[in-house]
Specification:
With about 100 residues, the chain is mostly helical. The protein has five helices and two strands, in the order H-H-H-H-E-E-H. A two-stranded antiparallel ribbon has the order 1-2. The longest helix is centred in the last third of the chain and has 15 residues. It is elongated and about 50 Å long.
């Protein structure tokens, strides 16, 4: 499974529980429109496990503990935020860099 395709899948799974069981991963893969036989082969092989773990560790070092997270000019906006909050942060950052 390619890394770019894994991000939406892990995001979906993480929103359902902290450590998803295989059946939840499979359901999330199906919802995300992934090729299920290829997904199952990838998960079973464990060949991308180190890459996924590296992503998890990298996110943890950056302070990411869940979904959703937006980085706006290196400012983290975490959790389900109203549009106004994101708009305010963007406007503050635009003002700051001008």
């Amino acid at each position: 499974m390619r890394r770019a395709r894994a991000r939406p899948l892990t995001t979906r799974a993480a929103s359902k529980r902290r450590r998803p069981v295989r059946s939840q991963l499979k359901a999330s893969a199906q919802e995300a429109g992934l090729d299920l036989p290829a997904f199952e082969q990838c998960v079973s092989s464990g060949k991308d496990q180190a890459t996924v773990q590296q992503d998890v560790e990298e996110d943890a070092r950056a302070g990411v503990t869940g979904t959703s997270v937006f980085c706006i000019n290196c400012r983290m906006v975490s959790g389900a935020q109203p549009l106004e909050r994101c708009t305010r942060v963007i406007e503050e950052e635009l003002t700051r860099v001008r």
